[in-house]
């Protein structure tokens, strides 16, 4: 019944907050499902370049038929450290993009020109910065996973994004564990329930601080567990 009444499906892989990934077979199923139920697919793919250990995040549009049912969004925020500059792009189905353009032109008057110029420079210049960023996030990921395991918290290495999605210890809700870490260790995490009911039982760690701060956070967590 939900599929019959649905108009669009919004997907995000690699995923925030869970760091989950999807392969082409999954997207083939998505396209088939969209055709069967006449649903528009919107795939948000801002973490496509932040991948580790040889993993490559596939574009939804790589699948045959995808351009007939959907579009894909991407952003310069994550790839080029331009968070807050609010610049990105969408590609895919012509009719859907036309609809997006009509809505967008009635919401704002466009991105500040200097930011557009910076975006052009990022996309057309050397891409060495991406590899450098990935190396930094990989090192932070490894340090955080090792530190959490030392504290007795089970954590696995994500294949993409700069997040860890971690199950909370027994006896805690996601909110309770988040408050426990904040009040007892001075460590901030995001309770999974903040992303919806299915996030209960998890917290999200971010890799957006340097390794020394990450190690310090893990030491503080170890001291209170």
Features:
15% strand, Aspartate Aminotransferase, domain 2, 3-stranded antiparallel β-sheet, globular, alpha/beta, Aspartate Aminotransferase, domain 1, 225 residues, 4-stranded mixed β-sheet
**CATH fold-level assignment of the largest domain:** Aspartate Aminotransferase, domain 2
CATH architectural group of the largest domain: 3-Layer(aba) Sandwich
Radius of gyration using CA atoms only: 20 Å
Given helix and strand content, the structural type is alpha/beta
Inertia-based shape: globular
Number of domains: 2
Strand content: 5-15%
Mind telling me the CATH class of the largest domain?
Alpha Beta
| Mean of all residue-level pLDDT scores | 96
Major sheet characteristics: 4 strands, mixed
Question: What is the topology, as strand order, of the major beta sheet?
Answer: 1-2-3-4
The helix tally amounts to 9
Unreliably modeled segments: none
Helical content stands at: 40-55%
Q: Give the CATH superfamily of the largest domain.
A: Type I PLP-dependent aspartate aminotransferase-like (Major domain)
Task: For the record, give the distance between the C-alpha atoms at the N and C termini, rounded to a whole number.
Answer: 46 Å
Can you characterise this structure?
The chain is of the alpha/beta class. The chain has helices spanning 2-5, 24-37, 66-69, 76-79, 94-105, 113-124, 128-150, 174-185, 211-224; strands spanning 8-12, 40-44, 70-75, 88-92, 163-167, 190-191, 202-206. A 4-stranded mixed β-sheet has the order 1-2-3-4, sandwiched between helices. It has a 3-stranded antiparallel β-sheet with strand order 5-7-6, covered by helices on one side. Helix 7 (128-150) packs parallel to helix 9. The longest helix has 23 residues, at 128-150. It starts with a helix and ends with a helix. It has 2 domains: 2-124, Type I PLP-dependent aspartate aminotransferase-like (Major domain) (Aspartate Aminotransferase, domain 2); 128-224, Aspartate Aminotransferase, domain 1 (Alpha-Beta Complex). Helix content is 44%, strand content 15%.
């Amino acid at each position: 019944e939900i599929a019959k009444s649905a108009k669009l499906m919004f997907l995000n892989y690699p995923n925030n907050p869970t760091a989950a990934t999807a392969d082409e077979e999954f997207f083939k199923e998505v396209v088939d499902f969209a055709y069967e139920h006449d649903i528009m697919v919107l795939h948000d793919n801002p973490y496509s370049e932040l991948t580790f250990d040889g993993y490559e995040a596939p574009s939804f549009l790589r699948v045959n038929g995808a351009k007939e049912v959907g579009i894909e969004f991407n952003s310069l925020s994550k790839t080029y450290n331009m968070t807050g500059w609010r610049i990105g792009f969408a590609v895919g189905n012509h009719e859907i993009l036309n609809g997006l353009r009509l809505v967008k032109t009635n919401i704002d008057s466009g991105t500040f020109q200097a930011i557009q110029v910076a975006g052009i420079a990022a996309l057309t210049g050397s891409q060495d910065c991406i590899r450098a960023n990935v190396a930094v996030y990989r090192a932070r990921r490894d340090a955080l996973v090792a530190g959490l395991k030392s504290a007795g918290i089970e954590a696995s290495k994500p294949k993409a994004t700069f997040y860890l999605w971690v199950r909370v210890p027994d006896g805690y809700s996601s909110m309770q564990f988040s408050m426990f870490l904040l009040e007892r260790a001075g460590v901030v995490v995001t309770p999974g329930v903040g992303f919806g009911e299915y996030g209960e039982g998890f917290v999200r760690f971010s890799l957006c601080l340097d390794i020394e701060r990450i190690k310090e956070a893990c030491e503080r967590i170890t001291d209170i567990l």
